[in-house]
């Protein structure tokens, strides 16, 4: 029981640190680097390598911190993270049945695009000034492209790093293991 409590406490501390890092440091970097969506990358890796429950707890913590610090309405990031995780879990269970490197690349790209679409749609719906629809804005597509590229790059690096570190992970297929 104490082992489980310590694991959850460590998960809370790490996810809180990553949320604070995302909001305070990464978002202030110059243009291509500020598009790194560290929390979404970590949530997808948590879902892919560990389990849905651990990813859901991480999404709750990360969404809470981003909602607390952002200037958008409270609940935006919680809602978007939860919807993205449920959609990613559905894709992993029904469409991408094996845990391979290629399925990680596909899920990272698809969920990153889905995340950007959801955030832009919610901003557009709840915005007071509806000047231009977000799909016709160059900044939406540029942000989505940069985030997809950063997600793919992190997937390549972290998957290969996990293969080198762990004996449980095969180079192409993974078995699920629960952390919490």
Describe the overall structure.
This protein is an all-alpha fold and 180 residues long. It is built from 6 helices and no strands. It has helices at 2-24, 38-49, 52-69, 76-94, 101-126, 138-165. The protein starts with a helix and ends in a 15-residue tail after the last helix.
Kindly summarize this structure in a few lines.
This protein is mainly α. Helix content is 70%, strand content 0%.
Mean pLDDT across the residues is 85
Largest sheet properties: none
Shape by Cα distribution = globular
Any idea what the radius of gyration is?
17 Å
DSSP E strands, number: 0
Low-pLDDT stretches are none
Q: How many helical elements?
A: 6
Distance between the termini: 11 Å
In terms of DSSP E residues, the strand content is: under 5%
Order of helices and strands: HHHHHH
Please give the share of residues in helix.
Answer: over 70%
Structural class: mainly alpha
